[in-house]
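subagent[fold] <- orchestrator: predict structure for attached chain, return tokens only, no commentary.
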Amino acid sequence: MKKIIITALLLMSTLIVTAQAPQGKKGERVQAMRVAMLSNALNLNEATAQKFWPIFNTYSDAKKAIQQERKEYMQTISNARNLSDADIDKALNGVIVCAQKEVDLQKRYKSEFLRVISAKQLATLFQAEKDFKELLISKMRGGTEDMQEQGRRRLNRIR
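subagent[fold] -> orchestrator:
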């Protein structure tokens, strides 16, 4: 009973934090499509989903923070003409550190995920995330195919 209450509280707190994040309608729609694609790919039952999503949301937030940090270093590098070699070297090292942080995050969360989903589902999760990112980039570049249809085809490929 305690576990159910704790899980419910974690799920509710995750939803509250997500709801308070400043996102436009477009961001909300993209997030909803991401959740739908991952849910379909993983084929989670209700009990597993209640355990999985709080872990995934925490993982995803940490990953976003690392990606934001890397983005800042990359913006510095993009202005390389106006920087000293020491500043460029510092930014390059920052990018490498961020890449290592992301690998460390995946290692740390691998065991967390494997407590609630199978290794096959975890592999599917990583592939589905990659596919969703590619799908989003394609759409942003003006891909003509409907994003949901393209998502369905990618989902069928990884199942």
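orchestrator: received. Logging for downstream: Residues 16 and 43 are 24 Å apart (CA to CA). Confidence is low (pLDDT under 50) at residues 1-22.
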